[in-house]
Amino acid sequence: MPELYDTRAPNPPSRAILIGIKLRNTLMHETEESLQELQQLTETAGIEVVATTIQPRNVPNPTYFIGEGKVEDELKPLIAELNADAIIFDEELSPAQNRNLERALEVATIDRTGLILQVFAQRALTKEARLQVALAQLEYALPRLTRMWTHLSRLATGGGGGRHLRGPGETQLEMDRRWVRRNIGHVRKALDAVEKQRHVQRRNRSEKIKVSLVGYTNAGKSTLFNRLTGETVLAEDKLFATLDSTTRKLDLPQKQQILLSDTVGFIKKLPHQLVAAFKATLEEVLEADLLLHVIDVSHPEAEAQIAAVNVVLEELKATDMPMFMVFNKIDRLKSDDEGLHILQCQYPDALPISAQRGDGVPALIEALAQRFAERGTDISLCIPYTEGKTLDLLHKHGIVLDTEYTAEAVHVKARLPNRYLKSVSQFLVSS
Ligand SMILES: Nc1nc2c(ncn2[C@@H]2O[C@H](COP(=O)(O)OP(=O)(O)OP(=O)(O)O)[C@@H](O)[C@H]2O)c(=O)[nH]1
Ligand SMILES: [Mg+2]
């Protein structure tokens, strides 16, 4: 079954020319930074970048996005000279532009969305993530069924689905579309089942305080997650190292316990198909009591990355959630770094840390402890000696401030997180 939904391209291209477009209302350095990110994505997908070019373009050409002359006189010879087998656009191409370019240049033509989808496809490990990526890929493929996607129909016959026969008068393309639509249905169903299962697990955790890491890809979320929880989640200098969410307990000083979640990172122009497909995972993560927005402040585009994360949070209707801004990778900066200074003026409450070296992490833990200490209530209790369990609960989850032993009972003053108040309510006395 996993094979049926394994939408990794079987023969991905190996040598690509990247094409950035400088549109009228963008600045050159923005186009360059974006192209550099595209290069990282391409390398993450295992494709070698043999050249990058920037094309100025006021309005996209409907046929090729770039001008016809550029395609014939520049790209074609460049592809031949460099022996490239793909071109990758840093924009979303329309299905028609994609097809026309593939036809004219006879190499795989990939756009930013398609590339991000491929990276996700390679990196998805769990059944749920695979299904989510498969759903996004199928939705993306539906209007685009070109050569690049023919592996989908091969999977249809090879993956146990049986041969599907062409109906009367049905073209190959129509047949492919029918196949994709049917599979969108299958994948949705399978995904529903997995998500229901997770919903049950989630209910079991609903009592606990939840904190989720969010942020741009490569900001250092997993590194911070590992540092805080002692875990060994994969953290590496690659985009989208994490696609699945992981949740672990984290004990704060003063005994509060929180559940910390690490999840998929965001990126500029994150394909909406992916946001939609990952909605369940993301919504769960965003059901948190607090978000930690991790920012790589050593990145020249830190501010734009904050904005990109906010765009996705908006799409998920999560902009009103309580959030701590965490400025990561400060070890890479000098203390008088101007960029950091500007960001600090904008976000005066942000917590500067180095997840890798540990600087600032105790202050972050303290900030979390303070935040959730507010949720506790000071109470006085009179507990009979037979109720050892209640005393244990106070010691385990609360802070015992004062204890007085009398002949019949123990009188205790304690600070207890609100969610435990119900369990001790019968022993409450007015102080
Ligand atoms: N110098 C420095 N590098 C860091 C720090 N934190 C993380 N890194 C590096 O940044 C890279 C990305 O870190 P990850 O923790 O994988 O980032 P992430 O946000 O989980 O990324 P994705 O899962 O891809 O979205 C890794 O190479 C880390 O070693 C830090 O405080 N300082
Ligand atoms: Mg990660």
Number of helices: 15
Named once each, the bound ligands are: guanosine-5'-triphosphate, magnesium ion
Q: Kindly state the mean pLDDT as a whole number? A: 84
Which fold name is given in CATH as the topology of the largest domain? Rossmann fold
Stretches with pLDDT under 50, minimum 5 residues? 1-5, 147-164
Global morphology: elongated
Rg over C-alpha atoms, rounded to the nearest angstrom: 27 Å
Strand content: 15-25%
Question: Can I get a quick summary?
Answer:
By secondary structure, this protein is α/β, with parallel strands linked by helices.
Explain what this protein looks like in three dimensions.
There is one protein chain. The chain has 431 residues and is an alpha/beta fold. It folds into 4 domains: 2-119, Rossmann fold (3-Layer(aba) Sandwich); 125-203, no CATH class; 208-372, P-loop containing nucleotide triphosphate hydrolases (Rossmann fold), CATH 3.40.50; 376-429, no CATH class. The chain has helices spanning 28-44, 68-82, 95-105, 112-123, 127-141, 150-158, 172-204, 221-229, 272-277, 279-285, 302-315, 338-346, 361-373, 388-397, 421-424; strands at residues 15-23, 48-57, 86-89, 108-110, 209-215, 246-251, 257-262, 290-296, 323-328, 351-352, 376-384, 399-405, 409-417, 428-429. The strands form 3 sheets. It has a 6-stranded mixed sheet with strand order 6-7-5-8-9-10, sandwiched between helices. β3, α3 and β4 (108-110) form a beta-alpha-beta unit. α1 runs parallel beside α4 (112-123), α4 (112-123) runs antiparallel to α5 (127-141) and α5 packs antiparallel against α7 (172-204). It is elongated. It starts with 14 loop residues before the first strand and ends with a strand. The structure holds guanosine-5'-triphosphate and magnesium ion. Residues 221-222, 235, 241-242 line the site of magnesium ion. Guanosine-5'-triphosphate binds next to α8.
